[in-house]
Design brief:
This protein has 167 residues and is mainly beta. It has helices at residues 26-34, 108-122; strands at 3-8, 11-20, 45-55, 68-76, 87-91, 94-102, 125-127, 132-136, 148-157.
């Protein structure tokens, strides 16, 4: 899998948020509510771009029952228009590993498994505090096996204790 590590700029977003865990099917339900309302942001939004953002409380180990906040959003130019029932949020910038998922959402868990169980173990990076996001643009086609979306994971260079000079 091709991975790009970059210093991502901060982003301003507006969307709808829920508190959930991975055992529940609330994220698809949130998107069903948000998608028809995205046109309310059209004048202020960056074209052809939506984000699914896992708002990070911490980088500690989580399991399927650990609650987190999830925001379905559009990137916006500023906070001048926040429709009722939506929230404004600023995604911090920083060092980010970007993975491109190819395939339908049914196989998205396989990409996350690769990121957390293989790539992070085998590379010079580790998780950093920050929001994880899924970047949906014109390459994303719901249900299509050739669909693409990017997954942004905040990272930092691993501290390798063997590289620290002994006093």
């Amino acid at each position: 899998m091709n991975v790009i590590v970059l210093d991502r700029d901060p982003m301003k977003v507006v969307g709808m948020v829920i508190r959930t865990d991975t055992t529940k099917s609330e994220i698809p339900e949130l998107w069903e509510k948000f998608i028809p309302r995205m046109e309310e942001l059209e004048e202020n939004a960056v074209p052809e771009c939506s984000l699914g953002i896992c708002l990070q409380d911490s980088i500690e180990e989580h399991d399927d029952f650990t609650e987190f906040s999830y925001l379905a959003a559009r990137v916006v130019k500023d906070d001048s228009l926040i429709p009722e029932g939506m929230e404004y949020y600023e995604v911090k910038g920083g060092l980010t590993a970007v993975f491109t998922h190819v395939g339908s959402l049914d196989t998205l868990s396989e990409t996350y498994e690769y990121i957390y169980e293989k790539w992070l173990e085998e590379n010079e990076y580790e998780l950093a505090e920050g929001d994880e996001l899924e970047w949906y643009d014109s390459r994303f086609i719901y249900g299509d096996e050739k669909s693409k979306l990017d997954i942004h994971i905040p990272v930092k260079i691993k501290n390798n204790s063997s590289d620290i000079e002994q006093l």
